[in-house]
Amino acid sequence: MISIIVPTFNGEKTIRKTITNIIESATHLNYELIVVNDGSTDSSLQILNELKTNGNIKVINQDNRGVSSARNTGIQNISKKSKYITFIDDSDLISKNFLSDGIQFLRDYKDVDLAICRIEKLTNNVLEDHNLNFRFNNMSHKVNIINAPEMIHYHMGGVVFRSALFLEEKFRFDEEISFWEDAKLINSILLEKKKYGLLKESVYYYNRDPHNSLTIQSWNDEKRYKYHIEKNYRELVIKSIDLYGKVIDYIQFLIASHYLQFIIKSNSDLINKDYIKQDSDFLYASKQIFNYIDTDVIENLRTSYFYKSILFKLKELEYNTELNKSEIKVYGQKYDFLRQKLYFSFSKEIEKIDSDYQVYKRTKFLTNQVANLINEEYYIEPLFNKKNTINKVFMVHLNIFESLFDQKFIIINSSKNINIEITSKSLVKRTLKRILKR
């Protein structure tokens, strides 16, 4: 039997679709569906009572105590016959083969206690790959976190566990925290078990629509900041030291990768900067936790130079990696035929460019024409007042005849003895390439 636990709070807009999706996926399985209504004030309970005619569904009501409490309540009410367990949020969906694939995997691999599937983010009916999906390019069907420390996991949706982890070993969600409780539990288990499986043909559809996103709301919670570092990151550090005598690379990758959420530009409008700027303890806690993160781990993160330099700063170090010419690309943003002006930007490898750099276009007379900065979306980094220049857009004069040929752009920093020349394909070649793709 597989136990499916769904916590819900005011999920009237999505809960019916989620429950129907689960029932359709579990049709030929021995299953129980436990829905924990965490003090909803909308019509969620009424909808659940309508759906409860299915004998496999159990609805449990409790006062509003949070998602961790709701999940723990679900665990306490699973059948003694339960062999497997999974948690699905009240606005999410699963592929039809997710449950059956998870069960079969754990039957086939007795040495593995949990298996995970791909995650697709669903925002306004648009699907987007989750950044954790790179792991499914791995040839193996199993991940050992000691041998592959970069293969981190922190998402509860899309995981099938052996029920014994909860019935016999008594793993539970930490009810003292309201953020990252799923990642903390999963990684507490992985620190002990060391392995997880990959369900390569299954998908968990994570609903990121704004009215459903608890993650967005969590940025206004004071506990999302210093408290999160001390209660979540630090406790995993302590557990790793207790088990291994050190902070294993996997936990280092996990913490460093997740900490990027505090500094990436896409979160700049979500972060409550008062909790960072006015709380010197946040910076202190950040520096303390990064004492456990090796520079090699930061170097190997799947992120840009700019963000790596910030993490190095937390260790009181400078990140001095030189720009790699071969990795830099020129992106044409717009060509104004009337005024014969080209608007362009660089790929993310150039994010570390600052006011000490000059950008030019090489003319047909082999002289350098200055490229003027015309748009710069600054993100003021709360920790170090660094400016993220990922969206710098430059403008340079380019006549129609020149647009027929490849262009050379020059990046110069005299103080660092940097002089990089980048060749960009002509506008004609770019246009033809787009047409052929269609």
TrEMBL record:
It comes from Nosocomiicoccus ampullae. PANTHER family: GLYCOSYLTRANSFERASE (PTHR22916), UDP-GLCNAC:BETAGAL BETA-1,3-N-ACETYLGLUCOSAMINYLTRANSFERASE-LIKE PROTEIN 1 (PTHR22916:SF3). Belongs to the glycosyltransferase 2 family. This is Glycosyltransferase involved in cell wall biosynthesis. GO terms for molecular function: hexosyltransferase activity. InterPro entries: Glyco_trans_2-like (IPR001173), Nucleotide-diphossugar_trans (IPR029044). Gene3D superfamilies: Spore Coat Polysaccharide Biosynthesis Protein SpsA, Chain A. It comes from the Bacteria. Transmembrane segments: none annotated. Residues 3-138 form the Glycosyltransferase 2-like domain.
